[in-house]
């Protein structure tokens, strides 16, 4: 990674955010409600950024992201409850196990479906989420079924904020570096025109599956952190609604914009807690936001706005050239 | 003899659920054929149909026949409105944008009914009161008979409509080539609206049959049958009308057999497993045509 102004600013922002939050935690200035939000925000940032890779950069719609999260959460949590290792290595191995398990599922789902186009993937990933839920319910002796898997050691609560924060930053950095790499350019070229990409010699299917597996891996990692924060896992925590919530974050952040996804994830995780009274209307609001954003993005108003901006930019460039 | 009987019973159960799936799948397939999009909100129109019936019969106390007709009208109008407001402005947008909008609409319908009718399930007895029939040692319930008759009649009517009527011909023309159809003087907007109206009317009928069978109303009740019907449409070959019927019935039978003989909890997983296998082995479905992409 080249060190330029942008990188330095990003580092400053990251360190700043960390310092402020850590300061608030150790100063005891946060209410219990606020501290309970810190780790979920990190989890959702990881989820949104990883889904952004699939929806924003690959241009495929995945509606089963919560399914991958649940695979990661359950496998990581099962390891944590049965291991006798000290905390740090246990968490690290759990993260690896959770991520890998989710990645394996991503591969199983991705290989048959990604050879096909968009709509099918959306439905299959949606169905996959349901399959996972019913399998978790079916394997009651291991997963606790509908009653939930409890007594998971709380290794990733807000007391371990430093660790979770570093992990989140690493995930964000990895994703943004993938996007900026040669592979990332291949991925975005598939989104823009897969026929042209194929003609240019890019192995489309392989890249699609690769992206899908990477996103699943990070979703699994986020799942482990989630499990270590909440202590009890239930299949209902990972239903269709959760997947949609993450999708709304990605869409609201501007598809294909990692920073936007992060900001949207932070806001949408914190907002419901702040606006407790309007809880009933939250999901309704989400759906309206989804429709309105899509309509706006494709409306003549937006196109005129973009045209004007492009014209201005072109004019500026022309002036510079003179 | 007992085993044969129980298998026969499951087959009839499967035929009943399967024909409801087929009705829903028809809506998916018709809309896909014409608008080249998956109408994610289609499943929720079933839910709206069921709630509308509940309001008309349970709350307003209308005569069932009038209530059924009103329900069908409500759903058709809803289908047309959704198309006009949410999908029409996106006709030239990327498939991803259309898909996300459709999910948004589906979600909107679910949450609106959640706000209006609350999350607690509402019990609602069946409006179909037909005595059951005994064939040999087999007992066929009244609902099953009505379901089978209604779906068969709807399917025959639909097939005749699409193959014989002028509007049906326009539909086929638009689904084959929108631009060319427009040049030939077909009113594309009207045809698309008509497709949504018919699809939603079929979903309303499916919703009425569905609620007569399960007798409980839930805001999310349309989601799962909707998805399964989509699986049925893919299984039969999306865009193909006979395919949707065949796919629905096959899926219903598979589901009922696996519920009875394998595991209730895994039945859904098996249904989606079938979808994956179909996509792997024959992506165009049983009766679908594979499209070759031209640049």
Features:
heterodimer, A: 322 residues, mainly alpha, 14 helices, 0% strand, globular, B: 295 residues, ABC transporter involved in vitamin B12 uptake, BtuC, two-stranded antiparallel ribbon, 73% helix
Please give a structural write-up:
The complex is a heterodimer of chains A (322) and B (295). The mean pLDDT of chain A is 85. Chain A starts with a helix and ends with a helix. Chain A is built from 14 helices and no strands. Chain A has helices spanning 5-26, 32-58, 65-82, 87-113, 118-138, 140-143, 161-180, 182-192, 194-199, 204-230, 240-252, 258-274, 279-297, 300-321. By secondary structure, chain A is mainly α. Chain A folds into 2 domains: 1-30; 36-274, no CATH class. The longest helix of chain A is centred in the first third of the chain and has 27 residues, at 32-58. Chain B has 295 residues and is mostly helical. Chain B has a single domain (2-281), classed as Orthogonal Bundle (ABC transporter involved in vitamin B12 uptake, BtuC), CATH 1.10.3470. In chain B, the strands form 2 sheets. Chain B has a two-stranded antiparallel ribbon with strand order 1-4. In chain B, strands 2-3 form a two-stranded antiparallel sheet. In chain B, strand 2 (133-135) and strand 3 (138-140) form a beta hairpin. In chain B, helix 1 packs parallel to helix 5 (142-164) and helix 3 (64-87) packs across helix 8. The mean pLDDT of chain B is 86.
